[in-house]
Amino acid sequence: MYEVPVVQKVFFNLNWDQRYLVDYAIVIALLFLSLLGFHASFRYLVKAVFQFTGRFEAWAAIGAVACLPLMFKYYNYIYDFPVLFLFTLALGLMARKKWDIFLAVYVFSCFNKETTILLTVIFVIHYFDRAKLDRRQFWKLTIIQLSLFGLIKILLYFIFLSNAVDFVEFHLVDYNLVLLRKIKLVPFIFLWGPIIFLTFYKWREKPKFIKDSIWILLPLIFLTLFLGFLDELRDYYEVYSIVFLLISFSINSFIGADYLKKLGKKSQVIS
After folding, report:
1. What are phi and psi of 55, to 5 degrees?
2. Planar angle of CA 42, 190, 205, nearest 5 degrees
3. What is residue 53's predicted lDDT score, i.e. its pLDDT?
4. What does the pLDDT average to over 131-135?
5. How far apart are CA 269 and CA 271, in angstroms?
6. Which region, left, alpha or beta, applies to residue 63 given φ > 0 means left and ψ of -120 to 50 means alpha?
7. pTM (predicted TM-score)
């Protein structure tokens, strides 16, 4: 492969070591499959909570993938696209109450990134209502998730115990407080205002599952404030599908009446 001029050029431009060509090839293949999986799982999640027309559903899924480059600031890591895929798939499975498959995906997600515990947060918030899930099954699934997360974290800790790296990074003082002081209100509103508006537009009409899911944005922001960069958008991949779905609902509300009427269908919400 390395004899191919295009491959040589890519390795040179990215400053990659040709000794690890096979490793790079495997990782790139997995990342590409994760993107395909994210696209499919996003559509799966859409079908679990909405009944859009097939065409709008398809465009929403394409839009979710197409907007990802907006998140590519500072760094990108191997586990980022798998986060999008596994977390979104788990949300779809949770919404459909397919618990056996959900727990299997949960295990893979725990090995990929520790923020998988936020799935449990969503589960507890949404299914704490007795009308949504039997109490015995609720506590059983909660304990299983916490046990799986704890066991996998302990296992990974001992596997990588000899790695000479810091357990966490702390960026509250050296970066985030400086960033917050530099924020200008008008550009901030101009940039984030439309996203916030579309996220919360017609809030009451939006599915309860998605509204409950967006609560994980608060712990994500809190953790990023201390341990990451607030403007490093890849830190919020866990909530990306949720926000994009809420925005898609709002866009459908703006254009959906005439658009769906032509197709002879109605957009419905599944609580």
Report:
1. -70, -45
2. 45
3. 65
4. 90
5. 6
6. alpha
7. 0.87
User: What is the residue type of 144?
Assistant: I
HEC string of the chain?
CCCCHHHHHHHHHCCCCHHHHHHHHHHHHHHHHHHHHHHHHHHHHHHHHEECCHHHHHHHHHHHHHCHHHHCCCCCCCCHHHHHHHHHHHHHHHHHCCHHHHHHHHHHHHHHCHHHHHHHHHHHHHHCCCCCCCHHHHHHHHHHHHHHHHHHHHHHHHHCCCCCCCCCCCCHHHHHHHHHHHCCHHHHHHHHHHHHHHHHCCHHHCCHHHHHHHHHHHHHHHHHHHHCCCCCHHHHHHHHHHHHHHHHHHHHHHHHHHHHHHHCCCCEECC
Phi-psi region of 84 (alpha: psi -120 to 50; beta: other; left: phi over 0): alpha
Q: Which amino acid is at 1?
A: M
Which backbone phi and psi does 5 adopt, to 5 degrees? -55, -40
* pLDDT at 58 exceeding the cut of 80: yes
What Rg, from alpha-carbon coordinates, does the chain have?
20
Encoded tokens for 74: 């500072």
